[in-house]
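Observation: inputs received (chain + 2-phosphoglycolic acid).
Thought: call the complex predictor directly.
Action: predict_structure
Action Input:
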Amino acid sequence: MRTPYIAGNWKMHMVKSEAVSLASELKSALAGVEHRVMIAPAFTLIESVAATLAGSNILVGAQNMAPAVSGAHTGEVSPGMLKDVGATVVILGHSERRNSYGESDQLINEKVSLALSEGLEVILCVGETLEEREAGAVDAVVRTQLAGGLNAIPESALSSITIAYEPVWAIGTGRTATPEDADAVHASVRTVLGDLYNDGAAQKMVIQYGGSVKPDNVDGLMGMKNIDGALVGGASLKADSFIPIVRFQR
Ligand code: PGA
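Observation:
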Protein backbone atom coordinates (compact mmCIF):
# COMPACT_ATOMS: atom_id res chain seq x y z
CA MET A 1 0.00 0.00 0.00
CA ARG A 2 2.99 2.33 0.47
CA THR A 3 4.74 2.80 -2.88
CA PRO A 4 8.49 2.16 -2.54
CA TYR A 5 10.48 5.35 -2.99
CA ILE A 6 14.19 5.38 -3.85
CA ALA A 7 15.98 8.74 -3.88
CA GLY A 8 19.54 9.62 -4.83
CA ASN A 9 21.26 12.49 -3.02
CA TRP A 10 24.17 13.54 -5.24
CA LYS A 11 25.47 15.96 -2.58
CA MET A 12 28.27 18.25 -3.84
CA HIS A 13 29.40 16.06 -6.71
CA MET A 14 29.54 16.32 -10.50
CA VAL A 15 29.68 19.07 -13.08
CA LYS A 16 27.08 19.51 -15.79
CA SER A 17 28.47 17.11 -18.39
CA GLU A 18 28.75 14.30 -15.82
CA ALA A 19 25.30 14.99 -14.39
CA VAL A 20 23.59 15.00 -17.79
CA SER A 21 25.34 11.82 -18.81
CA LEU A 22 24.33 9.97 -15.61
CA ALA A 23 20.77 11.31 -15.80
CA SER A 24 20.33 10.12 -19.37
CA GLU A 25 21.71 6.69 -18.49
CA LEU A 26 19.25 6.45 -15.59
CA LYS A 27 16.39 7.64 -17.77
CA SER A 28 16.71 4.75 -20.16
CA ALA A 29 17.73 2.11 -17.62
CA LEU A 30 14.89 2.92 -15.22
CA ALA A 31 12.09 3.41 -17.74
CA GLY A 32 9.09 1.41 -16.62
CA VAL A 33 10.20 0.94 -13.01
CA GLU A 34 7.12 1.23 -10.84
CA HIS A 35 8.83 2.47 -7.67
CA ARG A 36 9.01 6.21 -7.14
CA VAL A 37 12.47 7.46 -8.06
CA MET A 38 14.02 10.87 -7.40
CA ILE A 39 17.45 12.36 -7.81
CA ALA A 40 18.67 15.49 -6.06
CA PRO A 41 21.65 17.10 -7.79
CA ALA A 42 23.42 20.28 -6.67
CA PHE A 43 21.50 23.51 -7.32
CA THR A 44 23.58 24.37 -10.40
CA LEU A 45 22.71 21.04 -12.05
CA ILE A 46 18.97 20.93 -11.43
CA GLU A 47 17.93 22.65 -14.65
CA SER A 48 19.98 20.49 -16.99
CA VAL A 49 19.16 17.28 -15.12
CA ALA A 50 15.44 18.14 -15.17
CA ALA A 51 15.62 18.85 -18.90
CA THR A 52 17.38 15.53 -19.48
CA LEU A 53 14.79 13.66 -17.43
CA ALA A 54 11.75 15.39 -18.95
CA GLY A 55 9.11 12.83 -19.87
CA SER A 56 10.68 10.15 -17.64
CA ASN A 57 9.43 8.60 -14.41
CA ILE A 58 12.31 10.11 -12.41
CA LEU A 59 11.59 13.13 -10.22
CA VAL A 60 14.13 15.89 -9.63
CA GLY A 61 14.74 17.41 -6.23
CA ALA A 62 16.96 19.86 -4.40
CA GLN A 63 19.13 19.14 -1.35
CA ASN A 64 18.19 22.28 0.58
CA MET A 65 16.15 25.46 0.30
CA ALA A 66 15.94 28.94 1.81
CA PRO A 67 13.32 29.56 4.50
CA ALA A 68 12.01 32.54 2.52
CA VAL A 69 10.41 33.25 -0.85
CA SER A 70 12.71 36.11 -1.89
CA GLY A 71 14.72 39.01 -0.54
CA ALA A 72 18.04 39.73 1.06
CA HIS A 73 19.29 36.17 1.62
CA THR A 74 22.79 36.08 0.17
CA GLY A 75 23.75 32.63 -1.02
CA GLU A 76 20.29 31.09 -0.67
CA VAL A 77 17.87 29.57 -3.20
CA SER A 78 14.10 30.00 -2.85
CA PRO A 79 11.34 27.43 -3.44
CA GLY A 80 10.10 29.41 -6.45
CA MET A 81 13.58 29.29 -7.98
CA LEU A 82 13.70 25.51 -7.49
CA LYS A 83 10.33 25.02 -9.15
CA ASP A 84 11.35 27.36 -11.97
CA VAL A 85 14.20 25.05 -12.96
CA GLY A 86 12.21 21.83 -12.65
CA ALA A 87 12.55 20.59 -9.07
CA THR A 88 9.40 19.19 -7.47
CA VAL A 89 10.92 17.80 -4.26
CA VAL A 90 13.29 19.16 -1.62
CA ILE A 91 15.37 17.26 0.95
CA LEU A 92 15.29 19.12 4.29
CA GLY A 93 17.03 18.52 7.60
CA HIS A 94 19.81 16.33 6.20
CA SER A 95 22.31 15.60 8.97
CA GLU A 96 25.03 17.41 7.01
CA ARG A 97 22.84 20.55 7.11
CA ARG A 98 22.13 20.00 10.81
CA ASN A 99 25.68 19.20 11.86
CA SER A 100 27.93 21.16 9.49
CA TYR A 101 25.70 24.20 9.00
CA GLY A 102 23.93 24.38 12.35
CA GLU A 103 20.36 23.95 11.11
CA SER A 104 17.96 23.67 14.05
CA ASP A 105 14.64 21.85 14.18
CA GLN A 106 12.97 25.26 14.20
CA LEU A 107 14.70 26.40 11.00
CA ILE A 108 14.00 23.04 9.34
CA ASN A 109 10.34 23.38 10.36
CA GLU A 110 10.15 26.81 8.72
CA LYS A 111 11.57 25.30 5.54
CA VAL A 112 9.18 22.31 5.63
CA SER A 113 6.22 24.61 6.07
CA LEU A 114 7.29 26.95 3.28
CA ALA A 115 8.15 24.13 0.86
CA LEU A 116 4.69 22.62 1.34
CA SER A 117 2.89 25.93 0.96
CA GLU A 118 4.88 26.56 -2.23
CA GLY A 119 3.87 23.18 -3.64
CA LEU A 120 7.11 21.25 -3.24
CA GLU A 121 7.21 17.73 -1.85
CA VAL A 122 9.52 17.24 1.13
CA ILE A 123 11.88 14.52 2.32
CA LEU A 124 12.44 15.30 6.01
CA CYS A 125 15.59 13.64 7.38
CA VAL A 126 16.02 12.55 10.99
CA GLY A 127 18.63 10.42 12.72
CA GLU A 128 20.96 10.10 15.66
CA THR A 129 24.73 10.49 16.01
CA LEU A 130 26.91 7.65 17.30
CA GLU A 131 27.17 9.33 20.74
CA GLU A 132 23.38 9.59 20.92
CA ARG A 133 23.01 5.93 19.95
CA GLU A 134 25.57 4.84 22.54
CA ALA A 135 23.75 6.91 25.16
CA GLY A 136 20.52 5.02 24.38
CA ALA A 137 18.87 8.19 23.08
CA VAL A 138 17.83 7.07 19.57
CA ASP A 139 14.08 7.19 20.16
CA ALA A 140 14.24 10.49 22.04
CA VAL A 141 16.34 12.15 19.33
CA VAL A 142 14.10 10.96 16.53
CA ARG A 143 10.99 12.03 18.46
CA THR A 144 12.38 15.53 19.05
CA GLN A 145 13.41 15.93 15.40
CA LEU A 146 10.03 14.73 14.12
CA ALA A 147 8.00 16.84 16.54
CA GLY A 148 10.16 19.87 15.75
CA GLY A 149 10.31 19.41 11.99
CA LEU A 150 6.58 18.73 11.69
CA ASN A 151 5.43 21.39 14.16
CA ALA A 152 2.11 22.90 13.00
CA ILE A 153 2.15 20.86 9.78
CA PRO A 154 -1.46 19.68 9.24
CA GLU A 155 -2.35 16.06 8.60
CA SER A 156 -3.65 17.08 5.16
CA ALA A 157 -0.06 17.91 4.12
CA LEU A 158 1.43 14.55 5.10
CA SER A 159 0.86 13.02 1.66
CA SER A 160 3.55 15.43 0.40
CA ILE A 161 6.07 14.40 3.07
CA THR A 162 8.45 11.44 3.19
CA ILE A 163 10.52 10.78 6.29
CA ALA A 164 14.11 9.59 5.84
CA TYR A 165 15.68 7.88 8.86
CA GLU A 166 19.43 8.28 8.48
CA PRO A 167 21.63 7.29 11.41
CA VAL A 168 24.52 9.77 11.15
CA TRP A 169 27.12 7.08 11.95
CA ALA A 170 26.01 5.12 8.87
CA ILE A 171 26.27 7.98 6.36
CA GLY A 172 29.22 7.68 4.00
CA THR A 173 30.98 5.32 6.38
CA GLY A 174 30.20 1.97 4.80
CA ARG A 175 28.52 1.00 8.11
CA THR A 176 24.85 0.22 7.61
CA ALA A 177 22.34 -0.33 10.36
CA THR A 178 21.26 -3.97 10.26
CA PRO A 179 17.83 -4.38 8.67
CA GLU A 180 16.47 -5.31 12.10
CA ASP A 181 17.99 -2.27 13.85
CA ALA A 182 16.81 0.07 11.11
CA ASP A 183 13.33 -1.46 11.13
CA ALA A 184 13.08 -0.99 14.89
CA VAL A 185 13.77 2.73 14.53
CA HIS A 186 11.39 2.96 11.56
CA ALA A 187 8.73 1.39 13.78
CA SER A 188 9.35 4.02 16.43
CA VAL A 189 9.23 6.77 13.78
CA ARG A 190 5.80 5.41 12.86
CA THR A 191 4.76 5.37 16.52
CA VAL A 192 5.81 9.01 16.90
CA LEU A 193 3.88 9.92 13.73
CA GLY A 194 0.88 8.13 15.23
CA ASP A 195 1.26 10.18 18.42
CA LEU A 196 1.67 13.46 16.52
CA TYR A 197 -1.25 12.70 14.16
CA ASN A 198 -3.04 9.35 14.32
CA ASP A 199 -2.36 5.73 13.52
CA GLY A 200 -4.06 5.82 10.11
CA ALA A 201 -1.95 8.76 9.00
CA ALA A 202 1.23 7.10 10.33
CA GLN A 203 0.51 3.88 8.44
CA LYS A 204 0.31 5.77 5.16
CA MET A 205 3.63 7.56 5.50
CA VAL A 206 6.63 6.44 3.47
CA ILE A 207 9.77 6.11 5.61
CA GLN A 208 13.08 5.78 3.77
CA TYR A 209 16.27 4.41 5.28
CA GLY A 210 19.54 6.16 4.47
CA GLY A 211 23.15 5.42 5.34
CA SER A 212 25.49 3.38 3.14
CA VAL A 213 22.69 1.74 1.15
CA LYS A 214 24.32 -0.40 -1.55
CA PRO A 215 23.17 -2.97 -4.13
CA ASP A 216 24.18 -5.79 -1.76
CA ASN A 217 22.23 -4.58 1.29
CA VAL A 218 19.15 -2.97 -0.27
CA ASP A 219 17.10 -6.18 -0.55
CA GLY A 220 17.54 -6.98 3.14
CA LEU A 221 16.57 -3.46 4.17
CA MET A 222 13.59 -3.24 1.81
CA GLY A 223 12.38 -6.62 3.05
CA MET A 224 11.57 -5.12 6.45
CA LYS A 225 8.02 -4.22 7.37
CA ASN A 226 8.55 -0.54 8.12
CA ILE A 227 11.22 0.30 5.53
CA ASP A 228 9.53 1.78 2.48
CA GLY A 229 12.41 3.22 0.53
CA ALA A 230 15.98 4.44 0.56
CA LEU A 231 17.82 7.75 0.46
CA VAL A 232 21.09 6.93 -1.22
CA GLY A 233 24.23 9.06 -1.22
CA GLY A 234 27.50 7.57 -2.51
CA ALA A 235 25.90 4.68 -4.40
CA SER A 236 23.63 7.09 -6.31
CA LEU A 237 26.62 8.62 -8.10
CA LYS A 238 27.14 5.66 -10.43
CA ALA A 239 24.58 4.02 -12.70
CA ASP A 240 26.11 0.62 -11.89
CA SER A 241 25.19 0.93 -8.24
CA PHE A 242 22.06 3.11 -8.34
CA ILE A 243 20.17 1.06 -10.95
CA PRO A 244 20.27 -2.22 -8.97
CA ILE A 245 19.26 -0.32 -5.81
CA VAL A 246 16.20 1.12 -7.57
CA ARG A 247 15.48 -2.35 -8.94
CA PHE A 248 15.68 -4.02 -5.50
CA GLN A 249 13.82 -7.28 -4.93
CA ARG A 250 11.65 -7.84 -1.88
P1 PGA B 1 25.46 7.48 1.89
O1 PGA B 1 24.65 8.86 2.17
O2 PGA B 1 24.54 6.59 1.12
O3 PGA B 1 26.67 7.89 1.13
O4 PGA B 1 25.79 6.92 3.25
C1 PGA B 1 23.29 8.85 2.49
C2 PGA B 1 22.80 10.26 2.71
O5 PGA B 1 23.54 11.08 3.28
O6 PGA B 1 21.67 10.61 2.32
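Thought: report the result.
Final Answer: Residues 9, 166, 171-172, 210-213, 231-235 surround 2-phosphoglycolic acid (CB under 6 Å). The radius of gyration is 17 Å.
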